[in-house]
Design goal:
Structural class: alpha+beta
Radius of gyration: 21 Å
Largest sheet: 4 strands, mixed
Bound molecules: uridine-diphosphate-N-acetylglucosamine
Number of helices: 14
Number of strands: 23
Distance between the termini: 7 Å
Helix content: 25-40%
Amino acid sequence: MGRIIIRGGNRLKGTIRVGGSKNAALPILGASLLCPGVTVIKDVPRLRDVDVMISLLEYLGARVSRDGHTLHIDGRDVYPLDVSEELMRRMRASNLVLGPLLGRFGRVCISQPGGCDIGSRPMDQHLKAIRKLGAAVNDRRGFIQADTVGLVGTDIHLDVPSVGATENTMMAAVLAKGVTVLRNAAREPEICDLQSFLNGMGARVAGAGTSVIRIQGVAELHPVEHVVIPDRIEAGTHMIAAAITGGDLEITNVIPEHVEPVVAKLQECGVDVSETENSVRVAVNRELQCADVKTMPYPGFPTDMQPQFISLCCLARGTSVITETIFENRYKHVPELRRMGADIRIEDRTAIVRGVLSLSGTHVATTDLRAGAALVLAGLAAENTTVIESPEHIDRGYENLEQKYRLVGAEIYRKL
Ligand code: UD1
């Protein structure tokens, strides 16, 4: 709906506060289904993906009320209804109700989430894990149905450290009988936040942030109040906004350790980065230099920052080589950046970016969230006016992005 219009060229200067993490909030909202009481979750970002998750919880019988960034979720009347294709199609992360519904009710039926704009995104690791916990799983005719008379803790080894499969397994196993040991687990900070939330409810989970997570099943869980961690991808996006505009931004509500992979690459590019306990300052005092990046599971460079980093490389001196190892189809921003004058060649999963002296604004379109962020960043640095079509993709993951950038000096607004 509408379009974002940016008159580029302004250096961004000032302070931006980062909101709560979308990717931590979504599994935590899913996990609230585990508890027959009223859970309070604070610092939940106001985003389209969160709205979709709330609709899904409500469809399943939860009563949800929102006061600013605080959610009250009453899970007393939740029932494991079948989740239709319509609900699943709106957001892939809807699959995060799989573990909690199975854990609490011994039954779940969701439509297959299918592929999306950035790749095929299978569910095999989620299903392997719940099968090992003792669920009978039927994944034919477009639906995944799982039933059990009681999950039993076991050893599970994921083939790939999938974030979603790790989260679903944790949420299914917290109410299982006995001990589950999950190996080759994802180590993302959002998994640690889920562990804190679950333990606050009375679960006994240890090891999140390492590749081995141990879950001692408990008989029941109780309501909890929880504050979501800051969004490291939003923080990283603002860090690049400062760098690409030659600006100077203080980015607050950041856990510096979570953005370390991005900090390291910005420093390689010649950007000055300094940290306090909960903020990062990014300033540019010399010409940007090229840097090579390979996306990896945490603590590697995040795939969710790859599009934004490519925008930066477009304006850095020299040739940057970017390799995407997580998703097979995550270069949708490249043709659009080329239309703005970028020099980028794609070979299989690698993008070879030769820095140019300037980008030039034009009409561009976005098909996914982070590709949209990359185009906003390019537009902030480009000469002339950039018009970004379909900005609703950006609303999935950034709250008030235009307003935040306007307050630090950008000329950016939305035309409905
Ligand atoms: C999460 C994030 C997403 C991020 C991604 C990788 C949320 C809501 N979304 O997505 O923003 O880009 O992590 O950091 O937190 N895979 C399998 N089999 C499976 C599951 C995954 O092969 O059963 C593969 C995927 O195809 C992909 C890789 O594992 O190549 C990583 O996917 P995964 O970590 O599961 O991503 P999501 O949890 O969907």
